[in-house]
Specification:
Aspartate Aminotransferase, domain 2, binds pyridoxal-5'-phosphate, Aspartate Aminotransferase, domain 1, globular, 2 domains, three-stranded antiparallel β-sheet, single chain, 366 residues
């Protein structure tokens, strides 16, 4: 068997023990005589899988009892519309508005999509410096239906160092690329959401964690599939849920719990990112374009110091190719920002980060 070190931003590396367990259970899961893919979602066997997955997620994240956990489809991107449809419905004559902080391409997409359903006000942006920092978050305004941030910005490699205090206005956060990477005080948020394919499991499932008082406010004509109240009322089983994805998320949760939970993985993540940033600081060829106090633990973009744009592009594409030939794959930066990026999610072992640094040192020397 051959395994590469996969630095993909998503879908991304999964823990090998999870893949091996899934393989072992592929045709007979838990003595049921069936694959999880073949099971009725209403069966006892699947019920125990979804319940276990939710219980482990609650335990690992410390989700308070007054929050619902939903397993939905449509990725993180469908939440860009579900959030305004459910939390900022126009009632009577009074139009609602929502606050957005623009910290990158995903945050911008979220705001633009929301603007189809509610008034959107972008209260701060870091676009002026190519999103390489987290701007200061202004206080919410009275009448804001919610306040939306992207806690970790996957493409540009920034992270909010502090969670803004939005008082009574529900704070909504996209945590697609940093869920379970560090402890997070769920009670500070009204709603958290994440596409699974970065730190949770395979693509096809989105996890929504929503405070119960925010459920049941959907706009009248909201399609059933887009209503939190319907999904919450049916335990994520209004229709067939993404069963296999939920099962894999459950295995990832088990793996994480065995490792010591979120505190333990956070220590490891800080060590991994620390090594990599330290190397970038000392490198004469590569550097991090991101401001120090806004740096992500999960996604680390880097660029070369070569000034001539053509030479730089040539060198960077050679870097990505040679790294791949050495078993270090998916290091190209996002198509919109260029350069390189190493995504080092929970499942990336520290050996992978060390191997990447070693490769970069050699490349730099050559
Ligand atoms: C990947 C990503 C998305 C998009 O996720 P999909 O599941 O593909 O819709 C949204 N926000 C952030 C922060 C992401 O990293």
């Amino acid at each position: 068997m051959k395994r590469v070190y996969n630095f993909s931003p998503g879908p991304s590396v999964l823990p090998l023990p999870v893949l091996e367990k899934a393989a072992a259970e592929m045709s007979d899961a838990n003595g049921s005589g069936q694959s999880v893919m073949e099971m009725s979602h209403r069966s006892k066997d699947f019920k125990s899988i979804i319940e276990k997955t939710e219980a482990l997620l609650r335990e690992l994240m410390g989700i308070p009892p007054n929050y619902k956990v939903l397993f939905l489809q449509g990725g993180a991107s469908l939440q860009f519309s579900m959030i305004p449809l459910n939390l900022a419905a126009e009632t009577g004559g009074g139009g609602k508005k929502a606050a957005y902080i623009e910290t990158g391409i995903w945050a911008d997409k979220a705001a633009k999509e929301a603007a189809k359903f509610t008034g959107v006000e972008v209260r701060a942006s870091s676009k002026d410096r190519a999103y390489t920092y987290i701007p200061k978050a202004p206080a919410p305004e009275p009448g804001d239906a919610y306040y939306h941030i992207t806690l970790n910005n996957t493409i540009v490699g920034t992270k909010w160092a502090e969670i803004p205090d939005t008082g009574k206005v529900p704070l909504v956060a996209d945590i697609s690329s940093n869920i379970l990477s560090e402890p997070l005080d769920v009670s500070r948020f009204g709603l958290l959401y994440a596409g699974a394919q970065k730190n949770l499991g395979p693509a096809g499932t989105a996890v929504v964690i929503i405070r119960e008082d925010l459920i049941g406010r959907a706009a009248g004509k909201t399609p059933a599939m887009l209503r939190y109240d319907i999904h919450a009322g049916e335990g994520s089983m209004y229709n067939t849920p993404p069963c296999y994805g939920i099962y894999i998320i459950g295995l990832v949760m088990e793996w994480l719990k065995n490792l010591g939970g979120v505190e333990a993985i956070a220590r490891l993540n800080r060590e991994k990112a620390g090594l990599f940033y330290q190397y970038l600081e000392s490198s004469k060829l590569f550097y991090s374009p991101v401001e120090k106090n806004s740096r992500s633990l999960m996604n680390i973009p880097f660029v070369s110091r070569v000034e001539d744009p053509e030479k730089r592009a040539g060198l960077e594409s050679r870097f990505v190719k040679e790294a791949a030939a050495s078993g270090l794959v998916n290091l190209a930066g996002h198509r919109l920002v260029g350069g390189m990026r190493a995504s080092i999610y929970n499942a990336m072992p520290i050996e992978g980060v060390k191997a990447l640094i070693q490769f970069m040192e050699k490349f730099e020397q050559a």
